[in-house]
Amino acid sequence: MKKTILGLWLLACLSLNALAENIYPISREMGSGTRSAFVDIFEIYKSVNNKKIDAIAQKIEITNSTGIMLTSVANSKNSIGYISLGALNNSIKPISINGVIPSVENITNKSYTIFRNFNVVTKLSNPLIEDFLAYTVSLEAKPIIQKAGYISVSKGNFKSKNPRGKLIIAGSSSVTPLMEKLKESYVKINPNADIEISQSDSTIGVNSVIEGIADIGMVSREVKESELKKGVKPQVLAIDGLAIIVNHQNPITNLTKEQVRKIFLGEITTWEQIQ
Question: What is the largest CA-CA distance in the chain?
């Protein structure tokens, strides 16, 4: 009995010590669609001349891909970051926001409101682009999208016209894993297609299409008005949740939206402050 009480006491002390330590926030880079969606959803911006400007604290560590974000949080016990819901794995711990855990079910029933569209953009068109994009929003692609952890926006059945050619798809590292799965399934239906996927970020994806470097751009945020004026045409690929993640050693299981906002503004700096 004494050993049990001592063990519980030690566990409580360790939890309190962890909460007293500094928070180590990690953000995606400027140009990342995931960062843009995160800033918009959590209102982490300041107003300058009636424009909303990203206000994530400058001292915060920056990563340039979903994979690096996962590794960084997994290797730092006081870290906190954010990723696509579909990218969650066992290396980190997702936390609830306002008492609701991130999941496809909770996004669908609208209890978890931290989500965004995965978009693709094009400027020119040809039979292969049209055929592939028709497949991505078809009932045939729906199981692939759902299995990957996203919400499908399927619009009907698909029958390929088997066009021949090459597609270059570029952009968001958050969209890339899903696009790789869609590519793999599509080329089984249409072996005439040669599809190359290049991972970067949303802004590079859009600019690659504008400049004619890529046929399709992957964008994990809303397409900007300035981009639309340059001739790109957006299409929703799927709906994705944003998950706030911490290290498994962190005892925190829930934060409010306001607490997340203040952490990334640099106003909350220790875990103890959120109690």
Answer: 75
Quote the distance between the C-alpha of residue 77 and its chain's center: 21
Spatial distance between the Cα atoms of 252 and 261, rounded to a whole number of angstroms: 16
CA distance 73 to 167: 34
Q: What is the pLDDT of residues 135-185, one digit of tens each?
A: 999 999 999 999 999 999 998 999 999 999 999 999 999 999 999 999 999
Burial label, 40 (beta-carbon count in 10 A; 0-12, 13-18, 19+): middle
From CA 232, how far away is CA 210, in angstroms rounded?
Answer: 7
- What domains lie within the chain, and their CATH numbers? 22-114+251-274 (3.40.190.10), 116-241 (3.40.190.10)
Closest CA to 220 of 98, 93, 69, 109: 69
Helix segments in 22-175, DSSP class H: 33-42, 66-74, 104-108, 127-136, 142-147
Q: What pTM was computed for the model?
A: 0.85
Q: Bridge-partner residues for 196, per DSSP?
A: 168
How many Å separate Cα 78 from the centre of its chain? Answer: 21
